[in-house]
Amino acid sequence: MMKSEYDIVVVGAGPAGSMAARFAAEKGVSVLVLEKDRDVGYPVRCGEAVSKAGIEEFIPSDPKFIATVINKFSFIAPDGSEVIVPLEEEGYILERRIFDYELAKTAAAAGAEILTRAYVNGLLFDGNKVNGVKFEYDGEQKEIKSKIVIAADGVESRVGRWAGLKTHIDFRDMESAVQITASNISVKPDTCYFYFGEEYAPQGYFWIFPKDSKTANIGLGVGGDMNRKKSALTYLNNFMKKNYPGASVLTRIAGGVPCVPTLDKIVAPGIMLAGDAARQVNPLSGGGIASGMIGGSIAGTVAAESVLMNKPEYVFEYEKRWNDRLGKRHLIFNRIKNGIYNFTDEQFNGIAHAALKLPEEKRTLGNIFKTALVNKPKLLIDVAKVFFTK
Ligand SMILES: Cc1cc2nc3c(=O)[nH]c(=O)nc-3n(C[C@H](O)[C@H](O)[C@H](O)COP(=O)(O)OP(=O)(O)OC[C@H]3O[C@@H](n4cnc5c(N)ncnc54)[C@H](O)[C@@H]3O)c2cc1C
Question: What is the CATH number of the domain that holds 108?
Answer without folding.
Answer: 3.50.50.60
